[in-house]
């Protein structure tokens, strides 16, 4: 699927990505204008395939990947043609995406380290419970953390951006959750092993599987609810499958924010003509991470409005209750330090640096 084949979205647009050689001239003539420009006469035209796991109408495709594809095409004068394949159209399951980038099944992938627990330990660190402020700030913090400590996590690939979605919320089918007492006995789809550990400590029964299998779980009653940001709700119509959501009161950290990475096959990256590689690298890196994070903050607001428009109930989780949840999460963080140490890393230093970056609000 080319970017132009996707459905128009109903989410607030991300700010345009500006190619470095074009000053501040707008990349997109209008929302959804994502056709690659014709290649300049005599210029090499390279087609890159980007594979991801969400449906084509998901805001990550319509408001991030498609504008990025347009920016790459314009900055390269048509030399880079990014084709987007959503919903695992190139085959496999979401946990296999990182390996698809490494093997070259896809040139680029959107991978989520939580789907392969402990394989990418530094990247997973920011996905621990209560390690997310805003998506934008946490994405910048994650990118810096990976630059400083995560060099071995993605050997054989070229990470182009790291980001975190907005803090997760609880979404329930049958009853609201206002505190840990309401979680007891509930089967909840957990977004990660570490968040599942916390949910178990709070009395719930965590179940882990990729987000793409969640609709079936809710529809059949295999699970009573899930832990996800609002941003995911419209793509899977979760507002119709759940009736209650619970969110932290404003001002504190979110329940969790899974780490994400845009990976490129290393050989494919390094084999690009130097001029095209410079364009790709110039539109990747820390600035792209920040922009994606800021986009997820906007997606969260839009997703919450969908929940409210459905007539669902949103229950606040009071600060005093969340303080008890954060205390329950301390052993989860201590266990993760040991996981990092088992991987030959300085676990205490990595977690301390992550906390410092979050506190600094980078």
UniProtKB/TrEMBL annotation:
Region feature (Disordered): 1-22
Keyword Signal: yes
UniProt xrefs under CDD domains: PBP2_TRAP_Dctp3_4
Cell location: Periplasm
Entry GO terms, CC: periplasmic space
Keywords: Periplasm, Signal
Gene Ontology biological process terms, A to Z: transmembrane transport
NCBIfam families for this protein: TRAP_S1
Protein name: TRAP-type C4-dicarboxylate transport system, substrate-binding protein
Provenance organism: Salipiger marinus
């Amino acid at each position: 699927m080319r970017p132009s084949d996707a459905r128009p979205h109903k989410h607030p647009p991300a700010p345009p990505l500006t190619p470095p050689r074009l000053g501040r001239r707008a990349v997109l003539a209008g929302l959804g204008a994502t056709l690659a420009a014709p290649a300049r006469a005599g210029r090499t035209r390279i087609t890159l395939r980007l594979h991801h796991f969400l449906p084509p109408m998901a805001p990550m495709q319509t408001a991030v990947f498609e504008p990025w594809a347009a920016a790459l095409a314009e900055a390269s004068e048509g030399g880079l043609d990014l084709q987007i394949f959503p919903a695992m159209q190139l085959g496999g399951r979401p946990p296999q995406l990182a390996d698809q980038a490494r093997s070259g099944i896809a040139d680029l992938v959107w991978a989520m380290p939580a789907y392969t627990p402990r394989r990418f330990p530094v990247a997973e660190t920011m996905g621990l419970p209560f390690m997310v402020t805003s998506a934008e700030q946490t994405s910048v913090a994650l990118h810096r953390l990976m630059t400083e400590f995560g060099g071995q996590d993605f050997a054989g690939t070229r990470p182009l951006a790291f980001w975190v979605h907005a803090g997760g919320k609880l979404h329930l089918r049958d009853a609201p959750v206002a505190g840990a007492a309401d979680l007891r006995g509930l089967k909840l789809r957990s977004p990660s092993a570490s968040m599942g550990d916390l949910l178990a400590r709070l009395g719930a029964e965590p179940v882990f599987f990729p987000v793409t299998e969640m609709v079936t779980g809710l529809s059949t009653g295999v699970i009573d609810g899930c832990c996800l940001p609002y941003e995911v709700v419209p793509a899977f119509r979760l507002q119709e499958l759940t009736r209650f959501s619970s969110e932290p009161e404003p001002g504190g950290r979110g329940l969790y924010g899974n780490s994400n990475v845009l990976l490129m096959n290393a050989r494919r990256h390094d084999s690009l003509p130097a001029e095209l590689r410079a364009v790709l690298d110039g539109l990747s890196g820390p600035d792209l991470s920040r922009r994606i994070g800021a986009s997820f903050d906007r997606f969260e607001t839009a997703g919450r409005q969908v929940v409210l428009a459905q007539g669902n109930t949103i229950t606040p989780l009071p600060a005093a209750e969340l303080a008890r949840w954060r205390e329950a999460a301390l052993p989860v963080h201590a266990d993760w330090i040991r996981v990092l140490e088992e991987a030959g890393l300085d676990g205490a230093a990595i977690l301390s640096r992550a906390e410092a970056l979050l506190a600094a609000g980078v």
